[in-house]
């Protein structure tokens, strides 16, 4: 051991346990907290890691925000675990897995979100690696949706090796680290490339929150900097959040109203709710899956299968209830531009994507709604999807192609049958990649349509693609839409609006110029803009006059 004699005399060492801090009547998620090193080697360090002035935020602040979350606290002798390096961490990882399994015998599919501080994150990572190697823990790994790391060193930073960073943590947290402990860090140990590599193979399986300190810890300075405390995952797989705290204070909060706690709770609540939604979606798909050996007529109608198995973003179409008051273009406005779009949509131009781009507030969405309304009324609107940043299902791409497919299935019995067949053959399609979704439930069914069917063309209206929250998904969507050029029996047109942001531009770089037509909305002639503004003002002032009869006839 590496604690002082007086500490041994006055404190009992930490014990192994996994206890329930918060136990709602019918929990829908397990949040499991794992601490790091124990400065004084006391038995209450598991609680103290997350506590300030008797306020343990996981128990006292979080439940009102997540009333259905069960919160568990893992306690273990962290100092012994890390002093013995790989063997000790492996032992505690198995200890953690065994205790989790014993607490979840009747709810193995309930989602899990881990919350880990400092080197406790190493124990969590090691546990997930072990769970992948040992099928007896398979349910734990599959149930794990996300991890919130607080100051966990994942990689070296600023020319420091990972073991050196861990040594800084030891010196900063422990009062009297033993020489054997420090030597273990220098050798192989738990920070070897093997552990880092083993866990990296699983990274895409989880959603990660990486909270990192920004304040120095006395003379030791910043213990785990941003580079070391983050994994560098793409898109929404990882959110990196700076904290106004040092290494030990990064996961302690005095008040539920404090700025740092609000940052943590906002991101953690969102992560947990996503975990619950994903688990519910998996359960729904499993319960509704139609065995391919049964005739479709015996199992369910194609329409029922399509709508029940394909996730649908209800606020995506242009004419949803939530969008009913959104305006279309006023008569005698945008005349030339709308004429150009209609000519393109109805013609034989090989440029099958029309990219309408412009600055915020230039009327892109209004034009998109106007075009969608016209083709909806004449039966040629295949589908519409209006993105909205931070708008739930319309703020990301996970339901984009499945929502398009559901709308297409409503256009003809043939499409309904082809899409339904695709879903029946692959009931898990909604959980697969955007490419698989596009090719199986959109492009594939469209390619099977007979050339003599009416209508011979469909238009897709996609508004505000730049408001999709993942740049990689934006580029993927554009690349996949370009594959529609291969369709022969039906002509697909795509009207796409966005600001000219980097992911959009990069996406269009992948598409030959002969396949897309671009229009920059804010480059319209000033005289046309003035004309449209005049009509807009007259219209809205007229509405005011109707609502206020007391106004004189000459107003305004």
TrEMBL record:
In this chain the Nephrocystin 3-like N-terminal domain maps to 341-499
Going by the entry's taxonomy, the superkingdom of the source organism is recorded as Eukaryota
Any idea where this protein resides? Endoplasmic reticulum; Membrane; Mitochondrion
Q: Name one GO cellular component term.
A: mitochondrion
Question: A Pfam family matched by this chain, by name?
Answer: NPHP3_N
Q: What is the similarity comment for this entry?
A: Belongs to the putative lipase ROG1 family.
| Record protein name field | P-loop containing nucleoside triphosphate hydrolase
- What organism, scientifically named, is this protein from? Lasallia pustulata
